[in-house]
Structure formats: structure tokens, C-alpha cells
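This section describes the prediction task in plain terms. A model, or a person checking by hand, is given the sequence of a single protein chain and must write out its three-dimensional structure as a string of C-alpha cells. No templates, partner chains or ligands are provided. The sample shown here is typical of the held-out split.
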Amino acid sequence: MKKGKKDIYLYAGILGIILLVSFLAPWIAPCDPEAIDFAKILAPPSSEHLLGTDDMGRDLFSRILYGGRQSILLAFLATAFSALIGLVIGVAAGYYGGKVDLLITTCSSIFQGLPGTTMMIALTGVLGPGMRSLLIAVIITSWVSFSRIVRGEVMRVKQEYYMESARGLGAGNMRLLCRHILPNIMESIIVLFTNKIGSVVLSVASLSYLGFGLQPPTPDWGIMIKEARTYFRSAPLMAIAPGICIILFVFSIHSIGNWLRDRMDVRSETSVEV
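The expected answer:
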């Protein structure tokens, strides 16, 4: 077995464990993540509290499990909506071209020119903190990357010989899009989707850390790091544990995305038959 395959199995295993324990948090978390116990503030790791407790006496291990659930679910939903919007807009621009392409490309360029993090902070500041605001902010700042990739892939596929053959055989626009174009650009969408989830997790954690995302006492990796600043020396696990979770998740999913990019290179595949 090649080293590359061993590595990807390792990354997939790490990612699978994080996803599994996060979404099974209600069943495997030993404590209520929001239960306050002032008698156990900043308690060290023990058999009762595997990672100790925070400044409110809440179990760190339980909060990490629930925090992963919140961050990953939010990142997946935001990325899925961004991909859907970008797919529709990118296909329209790449397939129809002309004025439609010009209008969409101009709008995309305007959105792409705006600083992503600054735009998200501004949007969440106007809409107010919370999951709904985070979703809207991430979607508005993320759909452009999908639309530009999709537009380029659609324009490439449109020039293939089998597309001309399909048109010659009387295939309509819907058949061309559904039978020939979408199947040939899905690889690029999957790769971008995978990489984007990791970036969105970082964005969600950053906004929560700055106070514009999810709000306490909701368990979230970014919130946990923010709350740990004051107690880093006396209780370093408060910041280290959620930080390691973010690093492992983002690194694993980006590694898998890069592996998929190499494995699913549409330019190295033969064209589908008409």
C-alpha cells in the first residue's frame, strides 16, 4: 500500500471520529454542556471530568462534543446553500454566455472584491449574532467561489466534441445540462465543497471568538477559546482542547479535499459517450 493511501486513511479516520462523536454528543456526553457547578470551577482532569471544567464549572469534554456538533452542522449547511446558489448562477453564466454571463460575472467580481471576513462581521453586526446571521453571512461571502469555478467548468465542457454531437442529435438544453454538463463538473464541485467546509469552520470559530457568531452559553469551539483567554495559564486545556479539535478537523478535511482533487481530475478522464 502506498504511503499516500495510508495518509488518506488516517485523515479519513480522524475526520470520521470527529464527525461521529460530535453528532452522537447527546448520547455519549457524560454531562449537560450548559450545567453550571460553582463548586468545581476550573477543576483538573479526573474520572468524572475527563478534560476538567471551565470557569463556570461546566464539563469541558461535553462542551467540546456539543461544540463540534454546532460548528460542523453550521458549516455543512452554509456550504451546501453556497454550493447550490453558486451552481445555479455558474451554470447560467457559463452555458448561456453573452449578456447573462456579463451581468453575473460583474456581480461576482463585486462580491469577490469585498473582504470576506470584514463582510461577515458587518453582516452579523447588522443582523445580530446567532446561527441565522452566521448562515446568511457565510452564504453571501461564499457563493462566488463556487459560481466562478462552475462557470469555468461549464465553458470548458461546452466546447467538447460530444456536446456538438449531442446538439446535432437534437438534444435540448435541459438534456445537455443534466446528462452531459452537470455529471462532468460534479468532481470539481465535490472537491471545492470539501475544502470549503474546513474554511467555513474556521470562519464560524473566528466570528464566535469575536462575539459576532453563536453566543454563550451555547457550546461552540470558537466561544470556548474566547472564554479560555483569561485562564490560559491556570487551565490551559480550556483553549488547547477546542483548538486541537479545530486544527484536526480542518487539516483532515483539507487533506481529503486535496486527495480528491488529484483523484478526480476531470481533465484526465475520457469524455462520456453521447
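For orientation: Residues 173-210 form the longest helix (38 residues).
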